[in-house]
Every structure is written in C-alpha cells, then in structure tokens.
Design goal:
18 strands; 7-stranded parallel beta sheet; alpha/beta; Dihydrodipicolinate Reductase, domain 2; about 30% strand; Rossmann fold; 2 domains
Length: about 375
C-alpha cells in the first residue's frame, strides 16, 4: 500500500482519489473546503486538507511525504503546478488540461530522474494510448478522434453541461485548433468544419474542430493525417458562435459604471449556473477513435474503437469523471507497480506503446465497466 496525494478535489480529482483509496492511502487536497467535504461524504477512507498549489515552497514540502502525486488542478494552474512537482523530484500523473507544451519539461524531469505521465484522461488520454499501441503494430497514415461529454437531458439553448470549469470549456472554444493534413500542420479557428455524425444509442451529433491533438503532433509526426473534433448536440455550436462573435469571450476589460470587468469573466459566471452539472445529473461520454494504415500483412486496415459510457448511479460518479479519472488512476497504479519506469515527461501515447501498459489500461477500465469496443476491417 502506497501513499498518494491528489491535488484538486473537483469532480475528476475526487473520483481519482476515491478509486485509488481502494488500494492505497490517499490524501486529497484543495483550496475549497466544500469540495473536500463533499468528497469525504462519498468516501470515508480519504485524508483531506487545504492546500494552495500556487504557494510553491509549501506545495513542494507537502508532496515530499508521498510516493506519488496526481495533479488534477484547473488548466490555468496546470503547467506551473506540474513544473513545481517535477522540480521537487516527485513522480506524477497529470490530467490538468493546460495550453502550454508539457514536453518542455522533459529535460528537467530527466535531470531529476522522475517520471511524469501527462494528459492522462479520456481525450487526451485513452485515445493517445490506443494510438501509441497501434503505432507499434501498423504503418499509420490516419488518426481521428471524435469525443464529447453530453447531458442525457437536453436543456435549451445549449443542451450542454460541463463536468469542469466553464472557463476551461470556453478556452476549448477560443483556442485555435491545430490538425495535420497531408503531413502539414493546419491551424483553424475552433468551432469550424462542423459535421453531423450518427452515433448508436445517441443519434445525431455535431462535431467541430478543437485543439485536442496536443502532444501527438510532435511525437507522431510521421502520421500524415491527424484530427481531433469535439462532439455536441446539434445547435450547440451556433449558440456558442453567437457569444464568441459578439465579444462575450473577450478578455479585454470594459468599464461599466466605473468598474472594470472582462466580458469573459462575466460570461463564465453566467454560464456556470447554466452549464453546471448537478451532483446526480446523468450524462454520457461518447468517443470514436479511427486509425488507418498498413498492417503487418501489408493490407490497408481500419481500426475503430468506440466508447459509450454513462453516469454511474451506484457510485454517484459522472461519466466524464469515470472515463477521465479512472484512466489517470490506472496510470498511477502502473507507476506504483513499476510497469513503466522510464524517466522524463511522457504523454499517454508513449506509455500505450508498451503492450503491458496498453492492456493494463483496458483491463483496469473494463473492471469499472468502461468498455472500449473494437472493430476492424480490411480496406483493400
């Protein structure tokens, strides 16, 4: 039994902590006492305490008492927190979705002789892991990931609920989307190239460009076509585009009755109530991963993995927290069981390339009823 500290007691962080507490001693930290109380109400095995991750010296001193750190802080805190953890010479699994390139910390991680597995959620996360595995088995030419978290009950106008901060969601709608086409990086605005796609058990969804490829643009440069698109119910994009084009996501402050405030800050406050996912509100996670390339027999093969996961009534855990958090928990156990011991910063595709790790992830998730269905066919 190991000692693990989880930074961040949000919906995903608390799910990770609760899952890991089945085998390990887990301490869960946050700056919000209400979040810690809520987690303890779901699991009495947790130790909890307040911690401000922006206070670097206190953070580094605190985590030294543990065998492993799991970082589940909001995206805007992610990079600096991860850097502080690495500088403290602690192994870490990170799920914070930040805009900076985590591979910039690889050199210092190697110098400190530690392992950092980053972006280890559902997407980025399991899609990378699957890609890493098949990159060892095939000469891949194409990779596409379609993914989204959706409420079961559609509420007009957005038909959407966020399992994390609206600020992080809005960033997904404003950050330029990068993808690879014919071996070249293309940059488009987010929310573009909308397509309607059918998903069994859900119906018609709309997909749009988002900046989700992240590390694989650099670790898999030989794959000529790579794209990640976000899924929402039809109509969502139009309403978000109205807000975006009308300036509601602008960060430049404006003056109202002598007070300066940014439109983004106001919008986030308004949308927090509109998009807030209730503690027992049912939602689903839908993902389709498509890979194409030449298999070992010299044939062009298409491999498709699909995921349709739902809110778990038994544990009162959201689907997004399950699919994201339990992937991170699997990575934590992989490190603690010494199934992966390379030193440096590793996005999931560089972990999933190892067969023992790939099947560990799938098995760990399957034990929690998170099932990735696989289909393949020969195209020629």
């Amino acid at each position: 039994m190991k000692n693990i500290i989880v930074l961040g007691a949000g919906m995903v962080g608390s799910a990770i902590a609760i899952d890991l507490s089945k085998k390990h001693n887990v301490s869960l930290t946050d700056l919000n006492p209400d979040a810690l109380i809520k987690a303890c109400q779901k699991c009495s095995n947790l130790e909890t305490f307040l911690l401000d991750v922006t206070k670097k010296s206190i953070l580094q001193k605190t985590i030294k008492d543990f065998d492993l750190v799991v970082c589940a802080v909001p995206g805007f805190l992610g990079f600096e927190t991860l850097k502080s953890i690495i500088e403290a010479e602690m192994n870490v699994v990170d799920i914070s979705f930040f805009s900076e390139n985590s591979l910039e910390l690889d050199t210092i991680a190697k110098e400190k002789n530690i392992t950092a597995i980053v972006d280890c959620g559902v997407a980025p996360g399991m899609d990378n892991i699957i890609l890493g595995h098949y990159n060892e088995k095939m000469k891949l030419t194409d990779f596409e990931c379609l993914v989204g978290g959706l409420p079961k009950v559609k509420k007009w106008p957005f038909c959407y609920k966020a399992p994390f901060s609206p600020v992080d969601v809005i960033e997904e709608y404003t950050r330029p989307a990068r993808y690879i086409e014919n071996g070249k990086m293309i940059t488009r605005e987010a929310l573009t190239d909308c397509e309607y796609i059918e998903f069994e058990g859900v119906g018609t969804l709309e997909s749009f460009n988002s900046d989700g490829l992240r590390s694989i643009m650099f670790t898999m440069p030989h794959i000529k076509n790579m794209k990640e698109k976000t899924l929402r119910y039809p109509g969502h994009v139009e309403y978000v585009q109205v807000l975006k084009q009308s300036g509601f996501f602008d960060t430049t402050e404006i003056e109202i009755n002598g007070n300066k405030v940014s439109p983004l800050e106001v919008t986030s406050k308004v949308l927090f109530n509109e998009w807030k996912l209730g503690d027992t509100e049912e939602e689903i996670t839908v993902m389709r991963i498509t890979l194409k390339g030449e298999n070992l027999a010299g044939k062009t093969e298409e491999v498709v993995y699909t995921l349709h996961d739902q809110y778990c009534r038994e544990t009162n855990t959201s689907s997004m927290a399950r699919t994201t958090g339990y992937t991170a928990a699997a990575a934590a156990n992989i490190l603690l069981e010494n199934k992966f011991s390379e030193k440096g910063v590793f996005p999931p595709e560089l972990v999933g390339k190892h067969e023992v790790c790939f099947f560990y992830f799938l098995s760990y998730l399957e034990q929690r009823n998170i099932i990735y269905q696989k289909k393949s066919k020969i195209l020629e």
